[in-house]
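In this section we walk through a basic example: taking a raw amino acid sequence and producing a predicted 3D structure, encoded as discrete structure tokens. The instruction is simple. Fold the sequence below.
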Amino acid sequence: MKKLMSVFAILGLGATLAASVQAASEDAIRDRIKPVGEVCVEGMACGSAAAPAAAAGPRSGEDVYKATCFACHGTGAAGAPKLGDAAAWAPRIDQGLETLVAHAISGIRAMPPRGTCSGCSDEEIQGAVEYMTSHSK
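The resulting token sequence is shown next.
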């Protein structure tokens, strides 16, 4: 950096250009080390992105399934009935929607309470159950 500033001084560009090079270098450093994200904890104000998400309302059953339920119900992990497997879902569907939703909320066998969506509302859980059962008949 000192050599570059000396070259500017020799060329008659002076301190103004040298200071501008230094500032650009500092900006480049700041840009390289800036955070790539932030952690937002539910219930805390977390910048402008948190407010629109909360105002958007509940997610659809399909959105919840794709974001969280798919990990097990898309792969059959831990014995979870796979989406679209009518034979695996039939005895569960026969128990009724209310029972399935209750099991999804409180957990059953290897499935933890709310599956892997601890931040989902009861309405979102019900939507996900309805989505999975409607695609598994």
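Looking at the output, two observations stand out. The helical segments are 2-10, 14-33, 50-55, 61-73, 86-94, 97-106, 122-134. The chain has two domains: 2-33, 58-134. In the next section we compare this with other chains.
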